[in-house]
Specification:
The chain is mostly helical and 139 residues long. Helix content is 62%, strand content 9%. The strands form two sheets. Strands 1-4 form a two-stranded parallel sheet.
Length: 139
């Protein structure tokens, strides 16, 4: 399971319109054998609001959530950066959304099972569905 930032942001924000749905998605992420991932870029997006409102204590809350759910932060290396750029060119998504898709594609190339991208953004979900068969230039 790969998270787009919006799901984790909604999970943390009780006032968020998608909070209840985010809670359900996070419960689903706890299924045994589920590997949970987020790109370092999308992790950065999750941090912004808590840092703005609570400083380092807000960042600590995000880190505690990431640890509690066992979410692996996928570091940005040259291969992931290139994949994200190619996704952005093909889909015209914003760069952070391209990183979410690139991370999901990265997970597909290394996974034994199906990869699920969790996002509330329909455009991101549709773009991921369109990229399920990984073109050679994204490898």
């Amino acid at each position: 399971m790969v998270f787009d930032a919006d799901v984790l942001i909604a999970y943390l924000g009780r006032e968020d319109a998608n909070h209840a749905d985010a809670v359900e998605r996070m419960r689903g992420a706890l299924e045994p054998g589920t590997r949970r991932m987020i790109s370092a870029v999308n992790y950065t997006e999750v941090l912004i609001g808590p840092l703005r409102h609570a400083g380092s204590a807000g960042a600590d809350i995000v880190d505690a959530m990431v640890a509690r759910f066992g979410i692996e932060t996928i570091q940005v290396d040259l291969a992931l950066a290139r994949r994200a750029a190619a996704v952005r060119v093909r889909t015209r998504l914003k760069l952070p959304d391209a990183y979410a898709l690139a991370t999901a594609i990265h997970a597909e190339t290394r996974a034994d099972g199906a990869v699920r991208l969790e996002s509330f953004d329909d455009q991101v979900v549709r773009a991921y569905a369109g990229l399920r068969s990984v073109p050679p230039e994204l490898e």
